[in-house]
């Protein structure tokens, strides 16, 4: 099978169906851009989990004068109660789980509160005595936070014990929903791209049905007949997938690194190196979808 002849047939088909080819390129581009965004979002979630879960703290909130929980008596936690919590955290049973433990009194908590809510009117109405004195605990293994919660939550003067990972789980759940939504949209768009590729190939084959019949009668192989049509679909899909790879890289370069990284410097975002990993995946996905759709579309014309 001479490649030059096969390629000339493919180019001829592309010229005849230029408008459909452009449609295939655009649909492939949009669908694979969604695929790339979904992959990058999963990479981002993985990075954020690894970073924030290791830094998630257990917070032990002491009673204030306005608390009425079971372990609070409507009075501020006393020095003895605070010391009792410190002793419990320093005990051999718990100290082996704790990497670091710090205590913030009312004034320290209030200073941090004012810093975080400096542009919020609520900061003008909050006084130090309304804020809980707090123990902040970093664990060697964040998965063992239940040990701290069970040991400290029932002590007198302790209002509550909170594992910050529960808040992170909610955030990551929302991000996963967004990622799965992008994947669902991408799947729908890929199906649309496959159908459009199949339609394009069928139109191209229909316009040359007499030529195909003659080729079959003179003994042309199925492979020789199929290849030009498969190349048509693959060519359009490759252009669309390359554009999707470029778009994915641009999103990371100019939006994620250029905007989000500047706005949220404490967060480790995905970089252009991740986008360069995703781009070949998009190209391969485009080729596979196009090749399968083209082969299915042309199969009916391989019979005389």
UniProtKB/TrEMBL annotation:
GO biological process: cell division
Pfam families recorded: FtsX, FtsX_ECD
Cellular-component GO terms for this entry: plasma membrane
Topological category with respect to the lipid bilayer: Multi-pass membrane protein
Main location: membrane
Residue ranges annotated for the FtsX extracellular domain, each copy included: 57-161
Transmembrane intervals: 21-45, 177-201, 229-256, 276-298
Cell compartment(s), UniProt: Cell membrane
Positions of the ABC3 transporter permease C-terminal domain: 184-302
Keyword ATP-binding listed: no
Protein origin, superkingdom: Bacteria
Keywords: Cell cycle, Cell division, Cell membrane, Membrane, Transmembrane, Transmembrane helix
Presence of keyword Zinc: no
Subunit (UniProt): Forms a membrane-associated complex with FtsE.
Function: Part of the ABC transporter FtsEX involved in cellular division.
Entry similarity comment: Belongs to the ABC-4 integral membrane protein family. FtsX subfamily.
Name of this chain's protein: Cell division protein FtsX
Source organism (scientific name): Gryllotalpicola protaetiae
